[in-house]
Amino acid sequence: MDLELKNKTALVTGGNSGLGAAICEVFAAEGCNVVINYLFNPGEAESLAARLQNTYGVKAVIAKGDITSATDIESNIQTALNQTQRLDILVNCAGVWPTDFVKDMTDEAWEKTVRINLTGPFMFSKRVVNHFINNGVKGKIINIVSQAAFHGSTSGHAHYAAAKGGLVTFTVSLAREVAQHGINVTAVAPGMMRTPMNKDALSTREEDYVKRIPLGRISEPEEVAFTVAFLASKKADYITGATIDVTGGMLMR
């Protein structure tokens, strides 16, 4: 299926590794230019950009930036416009998944987790929405949430689950606000994936996680990335405000 993404530009936060890198690759394979936002490990981002350009013949640009910094966000958007002359898609993928049970959680750990996983996507989305509206772009915003947004957490991730739950509701609210401008806002809820973020948890508890997944296996990030690309495409023009379950059946919502 041709997703009609060729020559468009997608900005992916946290795009240098894990799910973000898989999303960038699926976009590139569809002929879509990518702006790879990263904060750490510039060599990783540079290597990914070079590989995507060489493999798929698209523009792949790296853009360092803290997703909770207005200055950095505006700089990333300008990089997309300067390097590719357009911006059509935002994927809010960057996030953190710390482990702290509520009884032991510091106020600072709560605030940092919520700021990165919820406030950052708000800040990025607001600025991209203004770009879309001011330039008549019927763009797409896809937020990466989690099954934990609906199930909560029993393993020390209450701050993460709360932030992702907020991001689900923010997705609905923003989708309602901007539908009149032809802008679609959706969310994707992954389950457990084989990514650097989850490596330590899987090394000690993979069997426990697999027992919770009806399909009986941990997903590869590419399996989630395909859904993101579909939602970013014209094929999904009539979907907005929805959260798509890509959990292998953990959520079934």
Q: Can I get a quick summary?
A:
The chain is an alpha/beta fold and 253 residues long.
Question: If you had to describe this structure to a student in words, what would you say it looks like?
Answer:
With 253 residues, the chain is α/β, with parallel strands linked by helices. It has one domain: NAD(P)-binding Rossmann-like Domain (Rossmann fold, 3-Layer(aba) Sandwich). Helices cover 48% and strands 14% of the residues. The protein has helices at residues 18-29, 42-56, 70-84, 107-135, 148-151, 158-178, 199-211, 221-232, and strands at residues 9-12, 33-38, 60-64, 89-92, 140-144, 184-190, 243-246. Strands 3-2-1-4-5-6-7 form a seven-stranded parallel beta sheet, sandwiched between helices. The radius of gyration is 17 Å and the shape is globular. The two termini are 26 Å apart.
Q: CATH homologous superfamily?
A: NAD(P)-binding Rossmann-like Domain
Mean pLDDT figure = 96
Return the CATH architecture: 3-Layer(aba) Sandwich
Order of helices and strands: EHEHEHEHEHHEHHE
Look up the CATH topology. Rossmann fold
Count of helical stretches: 8
Radius of gyration over alpha carbons?
17 Å
User: How far apart are the termini?
Assistant: 26 Å
Proportion of residues in β-strands: 5-15%
Which CATH class is shown? Answer: Alpha Beta
Number of domains: 1
Helical percentage: 40-55%
User: Which residues sit in consecutive blocks of at least 5 with pLDDT less than 50?
Assistant: none
Q: Determine the structural class based on helices, strands and strand pairing.
A: alpha/beta
Lateral arrangement of strands in the main beta sheet? 3-2-1-4-5-6-7
User: Per the principal axes of the C-alpha atoms, what is the gross shape?
Assistant: globular
